[in-house]
Amino acid sequence: MSVDTLKEALPAYAKDLKLNLGSLTSTSSLTEQQLWGTVVACAMSTKSARVIAELTEAAADFLSEEAFTAAKAANAIMAMNNVYYRATHLIGDETYATMPAKLRMSVIANPGVDKVDFELWCLAVSAINGCGRCLESHEKVIRDAGLPREQIQEALRLAAVINAVAAVLESESALVAA
């Protein structure tokens, strides 16, 4: 299994990441689609070729083609939105919040999967990309749809662990190359 391959690749000092990756992907309270869509969207947002390859391979057993595409779309749209909305927020002039973004975002309205699942994936990617405005917006939509905080927290834990696994593996790869 690809999750096991990543766990085995982690150095001893990252034992906590190994344990967290294993438990989060094997004992989830999320639906399979929510879990593995979050995994795919987060893996892609790390930009780590190794993490993307291993985790998308693992997710292929659990996601339909439509869900797999939607998870990739969540990463794509949030790569754009997180930069834009984080920047307009950090500027500190609230006038920007009242101006239309004039960016195409039609996938958010019609993602091809359950809207709550897509919003959850957008939230997780926004956590990795550090956009507070997007985190607030997607969390509100998810909560309004009835998903409990514990499941939202689980998606955030997945984002944190997948991001950390990618950071460690990329750092170790750079050290070997040096």
In short:
The protein is mainly alpha-helical and 178 residues long. It has a single domain (2-177), classed as AhpD-like (Up-down Bundle). The chain has ten helices and no strands.
Report the order of strands and helices. Answer: HHHHHHHHHH
Q: What is the multimeric organization of the chains shown?
A: single chain
Largest sheet properties: none
* Mean of all residue-level pLDDT scores: 95
CATH hierarchy: architecture:
Up-down Bundle
Which of globular, elongated, flat, extended, rod-shaped describes the shape?
A: globular
EC number: 1.11.1.28
Disulfide bonds: 131-134
Protein name: Alkyl hydroperoxide reductase AhpD
Active site: 131 (proton donor), 134 (cysteine sulfenic acid (-soh) intermediate)
Structural description of this entry:
It is built from ten helices and no strands. It has helices spanning 2-9, 15-26, 32-46, 49-59, 65-91, 95-98, 106-109, 115-129, 132-144, 149-177. The longest helix has 29 residues, at 149-177.
Keywords:
178 residues; 0% strand; 10 helices; mainly alpha; AhpD-like; AhpD_core
Map the helices and strands:
Elements: H1 2-9, H2 15-26, H3 32-46, H4 49-59, H5 65-91, H6 95-98, H7 106-109, H8 115-129, H9 132-144, H10 149-177
Helix pairs in contact: 1-2, 1-4, 2-10, 3-4, 3-5, 3-8, 3-10, 5-8, 8-9, 8-10
